């Protein structure tokens, strides 16, 4: 028992929790005037947590990772890398928000606070090595997310998105809990490693149901087909900065969590979950691509795009190998950059009255009225489609390479062929921006912060990103290795 | 590094890349000059490259290697085949820029940037020595071409650009999976090493098919050629030139660099498939070309027929066939490019590609008629022009393997003469039908400056092909040696007295008598 070490291992979450309580008090007593202070404090706290996580990620002393709180919480390179991504996304989502909510005067100091609490939940999720920690983290994140989705109280769509998200999210949590109770009942433990040991002599039918329910609940959280239905509605209805948040940080956390559950808890029984993951992956790729074709709202389109991308990442998980997990982490890093970039571009699409534009048709001729923004959005679209030489290709590259190395050649072949369907709708956005006559509805940008963020992510997604591969690969490989420590 | 003391191939990629970025930020006229200068610098570098290429020396020259990326490296290097195709690319590029000088008036900077990017990617494809680097260059070409067709294309450009993009993308993705498998198996992504690696026989078949899907679409072979006429017709003139001149050659280059040396046994197993598709293509697309009323479409279909001669020659597995196919590729690059320029010249004046709208151009445009005639003849394969050398060698090569394929393919030459002469008669001969045609001025100095260099090279290649074949000879020899074990037994065997020069099989049979 070493509380000092335990607190040190959990320091990112502890820092965030303490700051969360402080900013909550400031927000409660300071009111709307405290917005700026709260935002700055929250971002500072997130940067602090980011620094702590980066330290764990690169400090050789923590290379092996360590358990804390009697096997409830684990700090390893996998968790640290996921947290780095989560914190970065959260920071981005706080920075871009004020300009959006300024219209209609809807910005409240609760926004950064809620993001902060959701982030704590996500930190717990990626570090969870016990079903109970997992559930607490997940619910902490979800509850904050439900409120965030309906943050524009007076807007019908936002309220609807929040309600939908809550009802379906609660259902998914129920499914997840039911699965956990089955697992506990049939294995007698809630710890991942305990479950893995219990599965050493095979999986009973009851426990199999448990696995299926747990994976279903998690599939809802990562919006994988067939539990994806809420995604387009929630993404469309939620305020765009919140959508940006949903598409990045919680996605990272939920995917990382899914990986850890599948590989650590169910590690010995790969044959059992592998076919489920393969089905979910292919279904997400194909339905995500096909569903996007008819969309006219760019936020809905990006929602389907994220379903599609989750499918590709799950191919990495389906491999069940360290290479597959490493590929998935690489893809996740690139995905976060691409998604963050595209949503910030969407945030910058406002008409001359400052009202947000979400209709793809209204982007017509954007390449002439806003060449820089159009070029950035084109980079993100080609990158999401996985067309070389853009960096999005690298994500698909490593994932499919891992699938081929793991012998899943038919899965790789079908997956990559289906990516061509996806290319169709990404091309549509580029066609509208570049080929059509200007509609001239989009006003010039009024936010240097957004433009800086777009520029940074666009440069990362451009071919320049390949120069990062040499630095990135050891990090993702190290993270993946941490997942397989028990195997 | 190489004897020159500087990484010339990287420099050839860097010059147009830098110019492409600069073009986005300057005025229309500056962009034109910038693009022209950059492409001319690249042409000069290309000539330096050719001058310093050691014919008969090491197989891979000007090799550069830098471990810049994870899992693949920045590996460049060329053999004689790549050298010739790079020369073709850098030669056509300034001409393309010149052809767009007046025809493109909107968004000039972006247009020039797209073309310069295209040049980077074309050179990259031919110079890449890492299989994944090759794939990146190969696929990346879709983006600028999609934009060129979609932004500056004709009335139906959107459909054509989508079709071009999705067709070629679908063709290529399976190749990537095959590459992963190969690299896993062989443990390297280095192309020269992979070319010498013997893949297991049962795997070769699948790998070959995956690569074939990609190259057949790119080539294009019947029945996956349908994107080509659409793309050609809708693309601006220079886009068609680069598409026909260089992009189609990537398919042929892929067969030479990957399919044949890496999977020799599978190549023989699927020889029937290649021959069957090629024979259909030669006859069918030639017949389609005969009935076209749109000039660009006619030339596009003729490209499919010519590319079928290339595949037939490549899969003849002998020196004549391989060299013939390569010369057809070079010759077709020049000739079809020139023909598209010829169409562009009159399109710029009358803004229609309807053949029936023209007639009697030899009366008011004599210089144009002369050059157009030369390129028409070169397309047909008249002796003395580049077309003859390549087609003759290809057909001789394939005759050794199969008389039937040779006979059917040769009808393509006859049909080719029919549709090209028919086109020429309708456009250049006869009487001038309308006033607007009569008012068309002859070639301007700029247009002559574009067409004349091509004409000279076409004649040069026709009269003294040795200049172009010499650098490739050793590489073709190496490829032939690699294929020797798998070589099919042909149906044309020397039976009587004559020196057994053709194939080892023929020689062996001779010995029994």
Identify the notable features of this structure and list them briefly:
heterodimer; A: 487 residues; mainly alpha; 2 domains; two-stranded antiparallel ribbon; globular; B: 513 residues; two-stranded antiparallel sheet; 23 helices; 2 strands; 74% helix; disordered C terminus
Brief write-up:
The complex is a heterodimer of chains A (487) and B (513). Chain A has 487 residues and is mostly helical.
Instruction: Output the strand order for the largest sheet of chain A.
Output: 1-2
**In terms of structural class, how would the helical and strand content of chain A be classed?**
mainly alpha
Shape of chain A: globular
Rg over C-alpha atoms of chain A, rounded to the nearest angstrom: 21 Å
**Distance from first to last alpha carbon of chain A:** 25 Å
The major pleated sheet of chain A works out as: 2 strands, antiparallel
Relative helix content of chain B? over 70%
Descriptive account of the structure:
The complex is a heterodimer of chains A (487) and B (513). Chain A has 487 residues and is mainly alpha-helical. Chain A folds into two domains: 186 residues, no CATH class; 217 residues, no CATH class. In chain A, α3 packs antiparallel against α4, α9 runs antiparallel to α11 and α10 runs antiparallel to α11. The mean pLDDT of chain A is 90. The C terminus of chain B is likely disordered. Chain B contains 23 helices and two strands. Chain B folds into two domains: 260 residues, no CATH class; 214 residues, no CATH class. Chain B is mainly alpha-helical and 513 residues long. At the A-B interface, α17, α18 and α20 of A face α5, α6 and α7 of B.
């Amino acid at each position: 028992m070493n509380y000092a070490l335990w607190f040190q291992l959990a320091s990112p979450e502890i820092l965030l929790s303490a700051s969360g309580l402080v900013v909550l008090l400031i927000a409660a007593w300071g009111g709307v005037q405290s917005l700026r202070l709260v935002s700055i404090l929250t971002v500072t706290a997130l940067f602090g947590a980011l620094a702590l996580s980066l330290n764990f990620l690169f400090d050789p002393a923590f290379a092996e990772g360590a358990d804390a709180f009697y096997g409830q919480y684990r700090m390893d390179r996998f968790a640290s890398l996921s947290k780095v991504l989560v914190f970065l996304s959260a920071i981005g989502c706080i920075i871009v928000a004020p300009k959006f909510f300024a219209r209609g005067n809807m910005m409240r100091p609760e926004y950064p606070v809620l993001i902060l609490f959701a982030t704590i939940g996500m930190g717990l999720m990626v570090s969870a090595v016990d079903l109970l920690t997992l559930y607490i983290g997940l619910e902490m994140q979800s509850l904050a997310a439900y409120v965030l989705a309906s943050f524009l109280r007076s807007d019908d769509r936002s309220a609807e998105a929040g309600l939908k998200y809550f009802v379906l999210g609660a259902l998914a949590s129920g499914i997840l809990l039911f699965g956990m109770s089955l697992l506990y009942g049939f294995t007698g433990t809630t710890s991942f490693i305990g479950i893995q040991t219990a599965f050493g002599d095979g999986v009973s039918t009851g426990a199999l149901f448990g696995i299926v329910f747990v994976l279903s609940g998690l599939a809802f959280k990562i919006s994988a087909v067939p539990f994806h239905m809420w995604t387009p509605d929630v993404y469309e209805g939620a305020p765009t900065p919140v959508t940006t948040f949903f598409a990045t940080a919680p996605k990272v956390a939920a995917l990382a969590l899914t990986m850890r559950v599948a590989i650590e808890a169910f590690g010995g029984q790969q044959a059992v979950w592998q076919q489920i993951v393969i089905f979910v992956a292919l279904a997400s790729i194909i339905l995500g691509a096909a569903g996007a074709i008819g969309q006219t709202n760019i936020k809905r389109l990006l929602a389907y795009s994220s379903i599609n991308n989750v499918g590709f990442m799950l191919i990495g998980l389906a491999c069940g190998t360290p290479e597959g997990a490493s590929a998935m982490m690489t893809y996740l890093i690139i995905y976060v950059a691409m998604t963050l970039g595209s949503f910030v571009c969407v945030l910058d699409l406002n008409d001359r009255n400052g009202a947000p534009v979400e209709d793809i048709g209204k982007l017509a001729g954007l390449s002439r009225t806003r060449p820089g923004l159009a070029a950035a959005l084109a980079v993100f679209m080609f990158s999401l489609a996985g067309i070389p030489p853009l960096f999005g290709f690298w994500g698909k590259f490593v994932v499919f390479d891992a699938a081929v190395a793991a012998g899943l050649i038919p899965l790789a072949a079908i997956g990559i062929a289906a990516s061509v369907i996806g290319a169709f709708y990404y091309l549509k956005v580029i066609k509208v921006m570049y080929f059509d006559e200007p509609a001239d509805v989009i006003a010039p940008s009024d936010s240097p912060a957004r433009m800086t963020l777009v520029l940074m992510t666009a440069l990362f997604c451009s071919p320049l990103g390949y120069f990062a591969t040499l630095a990135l690969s050891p990090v993702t490989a190290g993270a993946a290795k941490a997942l397989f420590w028990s195997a | 590094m190489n004897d020159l003391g500087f990484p010339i191939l990287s420099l050839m990629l860097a010059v147009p890349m830098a110019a492409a970025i600069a073009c986005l930020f300057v005025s229309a006229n500056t962009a034109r000059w910038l693009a022209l200068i950059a492409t001319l610098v690249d042409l000069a570098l290309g000539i330096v490259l050719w001058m310093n290429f050691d014919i008969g020396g090491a197989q891979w020259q000007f090799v550069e290697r830098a471990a810049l990326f994870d899992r693949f490296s920045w590996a460049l290097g060329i053999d004689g085949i790549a050298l010739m195709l790079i020369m073709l690319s850098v030669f056509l590029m300034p001409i393309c820029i010149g052809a767009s000088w007046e025809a493109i008036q909107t968004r000039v900077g972006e247009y020039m940037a797209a073309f310069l990017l295209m040049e980077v990617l074309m050179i990259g494809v031919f110079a890449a020595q890492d299989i994944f680097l090759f794939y990146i260059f190969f696929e990346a070409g879709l983006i600028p071409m999609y934009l060129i067709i979609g932004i500056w294309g004709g009335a139906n450009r959107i459909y054509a650009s989508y079709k071009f993009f999705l067709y070629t993308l679908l063709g290529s993705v399976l190749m990537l999976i095959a590459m992963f498998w190969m690299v896993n198996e062989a443990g390297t992504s280095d192309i020269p090493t992979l070319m010498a690696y013997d893949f297991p026989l049962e795997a070769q078949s699948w790998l070959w098919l995956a690569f074939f899907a990609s190259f057949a679409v790119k080539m294009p072979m019947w029945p996956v050629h349908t994107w080509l006429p659409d793309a050609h017709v809708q693309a601006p003139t220079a886009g068609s030139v680069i598409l026909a001149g260089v992009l189609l050659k990537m398919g042929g280059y892929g067969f030479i660099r990957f399919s044949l040396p890496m999977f020799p046994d599978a190549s023989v197993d699927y020889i029937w498939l290649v021959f069957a598709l090629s024979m259909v293509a030669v006859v069918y697309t030639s017949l389609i070309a005969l009935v076209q009323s749109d000039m660009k479409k006619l030339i596009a279909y003729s490209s499919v027929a010519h590319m079928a001669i290339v595949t037939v020659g490549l899969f003849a597995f002998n020196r004549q066939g391989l060299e013939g196919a390569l010369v057809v590729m070079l010759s077709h690059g020049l000739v079809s490019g020139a023909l598209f320029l010829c169409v562009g010249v009159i399109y710029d004046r009358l803004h229609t590609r309807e053949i029936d709208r023209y007639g009697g151009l030899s009366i008011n445009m004599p210089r144009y008629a002369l050059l157009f005639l030369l390129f028409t003849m070169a397309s047909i394969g008249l002796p003395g022009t580049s077309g003859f050398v390549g087609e003759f060698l290809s057909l001789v090569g394939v005759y050794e393997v199969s008389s039937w394929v040779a006979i059917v393919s040769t009808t393509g030459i006859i049909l080719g003469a029919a549709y090209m002469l028919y086109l020429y008669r309708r456009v250049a001969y006869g009487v001038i039908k309308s006033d607007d045609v009569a008012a068309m001025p002859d070639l301007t100095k700029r247009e002559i400056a574009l067409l004349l260099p091509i004409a000279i090279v076409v004649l040069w290649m026709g009269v003294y092909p040795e200049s172009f074949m010499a650098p490739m000879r050793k590489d073709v020899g190496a490829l032939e040696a690699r294929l020797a074990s798998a070589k099919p037994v042909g149906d044309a065997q020397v039976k009587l007295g004559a020196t057994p020069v053709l194939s080892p099989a023929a020689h062996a049979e001779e010995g029994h008598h």
